[in-house]
Amino acid sequence: MTATEDETGAQGSGAQPQQQAEPSPDAFGSPSAPLPPAAAAVVRRRRVQTRQKRITLWGVLFTLLCVGLLGGLAWVGYQASLKVGGGTQARETDPTQPGYVAEPRLTETDLFVLTDSAGAFASALVLVPDQSGLGGTAVPISPSFVVPEFEGAPPMFLGDVFAEGGIEGLQERLGIALTFRINSAEVVPAEAVAQLANGEPIEVDNVDDLVERLEDGTQEVRWRAGPVSLQPEEIAGFMAFEGTDDPAPNQALRTQAVWEALLARASIIEQPELPAGERALDSDGPGFSEALWTLMAGEVRFDTVPMARVPVPDSLLVAWMPDETTIDNFVARVVPLPSSPAPGVREPVAVLNGTTDPDATAAAVPVVVKSGGWVSLVGNADSFEEPATTVQYAGPAAADTADLLAAELGVTATETTSEIESAVVLVTLGGGGA
User: Fold this and answer.
1) Res 90: pLDDT
2) Distance CA 46, CA 42 (A)
3) CB-CB contact of 187 with 166 (8 Å)
4) H-type helices in 131-247, by residue range?
5) Do the Cβ atoms of 84 and 76 come closer than 8 Å?
6) Is the CB of residue 421 less than 8 Å from the CB of residue 350?
7) Which of 16, 280, 290, 410 is the most buried (most CB within 10 A)?
8) Rg, Å, the chain Cα set
9) pLDDT band at 314 (very low <50, low <70, confident <90, very high)
10) pTM for this one?
11) Predicted pLDDT of residue 41
12) What is the average per-residue pLDDT within 136-153?
């Protein structure tokens, strides 16, 4: 059959010739010729594959992003757990094993500043709660207390520090004078103390006649020695009183007698919410009411800051300042684990136990504090069979603390060029500990 016959036969069979489709606009609006079915299928398949590739690529990128975020969160969580436990990437986490170290729980201290009816400084009270959370030590601060010079700031009475720098200034300067950080500070108005007395007089034993000098130069006895009855509104003035020939240690004892009487009165009355004054910024401790009731819930102890008459530089005056020769012993007794109130006041010391005695570290802590340091890190040495105790320090600024500490431990301090983690002095206990 010829081609003509094929065409004729096709026509004779009744088959209609196919109508050619009109050109249709393409995606950009221009006409395009129709594609054969096979070609159109290929194009559709390629378009589908292209969409699938795009979807797959976005899915991979999204998955990688999620994995990265989860990894970052996991790393942050891991680092946080190390900080809490005192660990590093390759650090021992079992406190019974060699190489374990951790940051100790430092002792918190709170300052409460009693003001008179005019809002001026009258007295102060430092509270050091026990680790149990019940009871603690109260340290009365007398108005004649003078903070020593520090970094160019001259010696000043606490009242002047409070008048010029407010509660924050007093918190800082008093902490430096006492050589430990004060965690919180709050003003206690005179009406809070009057309310604590429950509106009735308190009785205190006055050791000496309290004599004041009048404007005309004459003297008058304000309060006689012996039992003294103080009306609630007189309490702040009594604690703020500075008489002639009235040394700061006597003032501290007088202030202690008032606080003892107030706590005795408060123990038999309902515990009210006392009026509160200004709080120092960044104070993280309890308010006066909470601190007082917490103190009274356990054993209450009183202690006094050791004071000495110190010549004021560039003058003929003398002032009552903390006794530099005994202040560290006071801190070790009252604030077992202090921290430094400012750089350089106390040097950070790491204490590692290289013995089998589990109490060796605890015995060494007060030795560190008495030597002018603070314990920034505790733990175990790399071995529990260290032959002897060693004291190392990094940098000349730490030499004095290291030498004093080494002398207390019966060894000689040596300087190291290696970095000491979280400290500038490293004590490794050996040969029986401290």
Assistant:
1) 55
2) 6
3) no
4) 158-178, 190-196, 235-240
5) no
6) yes
7) 280
8) 39
9) confident
10) 0.77
11) 39
12) 93
